[in-house]
Amino acid sequence: MIHRKCSALGAALLTAGALATTTHEAAAEKTCPYTSSIDRPALTDVSTGPSVKQAQCLSNVWGGVPKVAVDGVFGTATSKKIIWIQGCHGLGRTGVVDQATWRVLYDPALDCYDPYPK
After folding, report:
1. Which of 67, 76, 78, 97 allows an S-S link to 43, with CB 3.0 to 4.6 Å?
2. Tens digit of pLDDT for each residue in 33-54?
3. Prediction pTM value
4. CB within 8 A of 31, min separation 6: which ones?
């Protein structure tokens, strides 16, 4: 009996988590409509195009620190912002927008106590 209740509770929590993620992604797609939330290629300092615009836009929605230009060019300002966001989420500060970085861009932590680099 207890096992069934725990299983049902676990399933309900997983469903709620999946719905919350979908809601965040849907809201992000309305705010940043450059690509779909399932289009998440790895981005580096040589990347260009709509996926870079999506990452730039999401990074601007995420934090109040300097906004980056949403120009589709992964330049120094974009790299700096991504590194800061990665640090805020305990990710490796690589500057590469990998799958873990995309996840936090679409579902960020509410606060960051990591100072923005000068």
Report:
1. 97
2. 999 989 999 999 999 999 999 9
3. 0.76
4. 57, 61
